[in-house]
Amino acid sequence: MAVRNQRRAGLLDEALAHGGPIIVFDGVNLSFDDKVILRDVSFTLQTGHTKVFLGASGAGKSTILRLILGLLKPDAGRIFVNGEEIEDMAEEELMRVRGDLGMVFQEGALFDSLTVRENVGYKLFEELNWPLDKANARVEEVLGFVGLSEFIDRMPSELSGGQRRRVAIARAMAAKPRILLYDEPTTGLDPITSVSVDEEIIKLRDLEGVSSVLVTHQLRDAFFVAEHTAQRNGGRVSLERAVAHKADEAEFIMLKEGGIAFEGNAAELRQAASQDQYIHAFLS
């Protein structure tokens, strides 16, 4: 108990310090009626790093994202986003915090009646009231980043599944958030298309300094994101295997029955699979 209390005190000190973690969960608990969803969950996400949440269906992975967004409030514990404690915030304050969060949903969740340009720029046009020329320039910039400039005036129905996900990523990054939340972003895609989405997640993290929270069942994609890095070489972007210290910036959290069963890097997760039946079953 003393060790746990010391760790919590350290988490709070970090959360409130200048340059501290961009997301902190401290002893978070959540139940719906008699069903425990999260039990004493604590973790930190450093700026520009990645947290990958794994676990069986119902383990609480997507609930983590809803708590970060302030869509759910914990029964106990504290949550910090960008150094601000959010669990007791009013909706108006949460809207301000959400301005620095981008969300990529499982199915892309594009507006079918809007063009790609209008989908990507929706927040800029409708919520932030950017001048039209500035908003259009940003839309063109982010579509170029995800390699879809030529699709700017297409309708979502004219896009492949992978293109729709990449448009969703462009939309999430349009307002320049410092944190992106991904909820099963490659589910339902073929392996080659999934890799193209994974590459965009890596590019945003390594070239734009975006902090990432990735919820996924797709182990192939989780390890790919954790163990690759993007670099600019002149005017070109290349993806390479990450060196050890860079790979360590992507940490996995395995949830089991609402609690944290494992936390560590990709190499440590593979090693843990030889000692823990739950992790072994999940990875196999």
CATH class of one domain: Alpha Beta
Whole-Å distance between the termini?
34 Å
Shape: globular
CATH fold-level assignment of one domain: Rossmann fold
Helix content: 40-55%
Category by helix and strand content: alpha/beta
Find the count of extended strands (DSSP E, 2+ residues): 12
Low-confidence stretches: none
Proportion of β residues?
A: 25-35%
The biggest sheet, with number of strands, parallel, antiparallel or mixed sense and barrel status, is: 6 strands, mixed
**Oligomer designation:** single chain
N-to-C order of helices and strands: HEEEHEEHEHHHHEHEHEEHEEHH
Rg computed from alpha carbons, rounded to a whole number of angstroms: 19 Å
**Spatial sequence of strands, sheet with the most strands:** 6-7-8-3-11-12
Can you identify the CATH superfamily of one domain?
P-loop containing nucleotide triphosphate hydrolases
Mean pLDDT: 90
Can you count the helices? Answer: 12
The assigned CATH architecture of one domain is 3-Layer(aba) Sandwich
Any overview of this molecule?
This protein has 284 residues and is of the alpha/beta class. It contains 12 helices and 12 strands. It has a domain of 136 residues: Rossmann fold (3-Layer(aba) Sandwich), CATH 3.40.50.300. Strands 6-7-8-3-11-12 form a 6-stranded mixed β-sheet, with helices on both faces. Strands 2-1-4-5 form a 4-stranded antiparallel β-sheet, sandwiched between helices. Strands 9-10 form a two-stranded antiparallel ribbon. Strand 7, helix 8 and strand 8 form a beta-alpha-beta unit.
